[in-house]
Amino acid sequence: MNNDLFNMDTPEGPSDADPVRRAQVQSNLPFPKRFYKAVDVVERDGQFAVELDGKRVKTPARQNLSLPNRALAQMIADEFAAQDKDIVPAKMPVTRLANTAIDGVVSDPQVVLEDVLRFASSDMLCYRAGSPERLVNRQTELWDPVIDWAASDLGARFVLAEGVMYVEQPRETLAALGVHLGQFKDAFAVAALHTITTLTGSAILALAVAKGRVSGEEAWTLAHVDEDWTIEQWGEDAEAAARRALREREMIAAVKVLQAIAV
């Protein structure tokens, strides 16, 4: 078996061309057997690679999985080393994010950043419940400090709304946020920022994590205020809890990638 582990086809045909979609599809494919024994990180021309029994790992698009520093490469190596008899891509979130960065972000990171900015135009933190009072108070207590931070530190003053009716954010607000997003040049950082945004529904939270205002764990809690409230009232569904745990793993992996790039 070759080491191009993530370059698998679905039973219906080739994997989706979108690396993000492909990663989702591959999570449901039959698992390949672990065929390697040794996992190593090697440096090549200032870049770092992961080798399995001396063979270099490649991305789904058959590009070399080249990492900018040893810390990031070691995280991927650790994911490969942790695999048991079967190789489970869903348990390798850093590897899949790195694949996405190389295959889908390097060529045009601006497009990905623009997608993050679109999330900001209808950011989850801006839409508040009208009732019950305890939920309203909880949202105010937990979300307002982040909204205030965006205004004071990012120069982005967001308009809040009650309910789900769309409210247009000022151009100046989105422009200010765009300036800060434009500071992210590294494809791995951009991919991680996009992952955090989509998983939380909040570009504000993603930037707050990237700039050290909140931790990944805190951002995850803030993104689930409404869901946690519902669980308190009605209990938790086991399948929903499992899906949430999987998303949280993706979230924390993205945060770790951001931290590794900042090293």
Any overview of this molecule?
- One of its GO terms (biological process) is proton-transporting ATP synthase complex assembly.
- This is Chaperone required for assembly of F1-ATPase.
- Keywords: Chaperone, Transit peptide.
- It holds the Pfam family ATP12.
- The chain has 263 residues and is an alpha+beta fold.
- It folds into 2 domains: 74 residues, 2-Layer Sandwich (ATP12-like); 153 residues, ATP12 ATPase (ATP12-like fold, Orthogonal Bundle), CATH 1.10.3580.
- 54% of the residues lie in helices and 8% in strands.
- The chain has 11 helices and 6 strands.
- The strands form 2 sheets. Strands 1, 2, 3 and 4 form a 4-stranded antiparallel β-sheet that branches. A two-stranded parallel ribbon has the order 5-6.
- β5, α5 and β6 form a beta-alpha-beta unit.
- α4 runs antiparallel to α6 and α4 packs parallel to α7.
- The relative contact order is 0.11.
